[in-house]
Design a protein that fits this description.
Elements: E1 2-6, H1 10-21, E2 25-29, H2 33-52, H3 58-66, E3 68-71, E4 82-85, H4 91-102, E5 110-113, H5 120-124, E6 133-138, E7 147-152, H6 158-170, E8 174-179, H7 186-202, H8 208-219, H9 225-232, H10 234-247, H11 258-265, E9 305-310, H12 312-324, E10 328-329, E11 340-344, H13 351-358, E12 365-368, E13 379-383, H14 389-401, E14 406-409, H15 416-433, H16 439-450, H17 456-463, H18 465-469
Parallel strand pairs: 1-2, 1-4, 2-3, 4-5, 5-6, 7-8, 9-10, 9-11, 11-12, 13-14
Antiparallel strand pairs: 6-7, 12-13
Helix pairs in contact: 1-2, 2-3, 7-15, 8-15, 9-10, 15-17
Amino acid sequence: MTVGVIGLGVMGRGIAQVLAQSGIKVLLYDNNEEILDSGIDFIKRMIDKLCEKGKIDKDKAESSKSLIVKTTDLSDFSGCDLVIEAVVENLDIKKNIFYKLEEIVKEDCILATNTSSLSVTSIAAACKKPSRVAGFHFFNPVPLMKVVEVVRGIMTEDWVCDELKRIAQVIGHTPILTKDTPGFLVNHLGRAYGTEALTILSEGVADIEDIDVILRETCNFRMGPFELFDLTGIDVSHPATESIYHQFYEDPRYKPSYILQRRMEAKLLGRKTGQGFYKYDSSGKKIIKEKTTYIKSVDKSKIFKIWVGGDKSNVNMIKNFIFKIGGELDEGKKPSKKSICMLVPELGKDATTTSVELGVDPEKSVAIEAFNNALNKHIVLMKTVVTTDNTILNLMSLLQQNELNYSIINDSPGFINQRVLAMIINTACAIAQQNIASPHDIDKAVKLALGYPFGPLEWGNMFGVNNILQ
């Protein structure tokens, strides 16, 4: 089998490498021979490094490198069984390449595009035989990200997708079959995490650091959304979000944020520029901003009690937690005037509404997050709109004496982790409902490509559909 690869950027090089390492002959094309030679040298160095690390033996390395052939003449692709285009994300350029390829390749050659954001159907429209055109979307870095989206255009025939799935498995990647919709599967679903986090930030619910730490610690995401923006590059994330938003005809679920736009204008693009949402040193390491803490020793003569009320299914758990950390409980049906009210809102509710519903003083009220075993990971307290500083300082003192990690956030309909998880799960449900991809593939793709600890539909089943709806 011979596979042609057009474009020797980061993606093209990675695709060529995994093909050659899998014993497939690769014909690499670029009209600039200097770029072509540089790209091939890079690929061969990567293969040599694998050999040096003992990941592959010397014979395998030499065999893989011998399968890489270069050309500056597209007509050399006449014998290819598959051609993968991996050039710049420009529809006109891609269409022109496919138009030229169709005059060169054999009748049963598959034409695939590695586009991440453009319509496969639009690219295929340049061809006389659009039925053999499909998306074959890899993720960066290709040798490490063992997943690839097989994108079916409107005219793509079944045999094309079947063959691409087979090739994906040969090179050690998991194929995910998806329809040709904006963002396909992964980039479509990936919008939910960052978009809701930006909404939370814009509402003043919490600062960047607290949003990141809450989602890392209470939901087990590998990175917080703002850390992820900085890693990916805001100049990559924001245009992708804008593209998906416009392709879905301004569906408000995908609405971009002015926050990213302002950072783009300021050229604060993330790690690559030394500053995005965070600052980075010359080695690319995040500079940790020391957070102000309020240590207050408790006056034993004026010890406060804590009254707990709200969601009955979690009240006893919160009482046990307070007892465990040395807090004194107010066991009355209603709180005494001197007690702090620890509220346990129902899912999706805010602290202020909960205090009004329970008939307690909102100035002395603070809500605590009980969802998804948050107490065992990172304590999150939510103020009402009028919670006094003294109320917060007393609770902070108690938590600090127990050396517990915590975040204080402002009032919000639902805590941060509830909001973000609900957005991710609902977006996944919409993708499944529209038959963009199967529920099994949705969960698999998200874990492999985005590194989520669970698939969104797995999460939905764990938490219960009624809870997510609520």
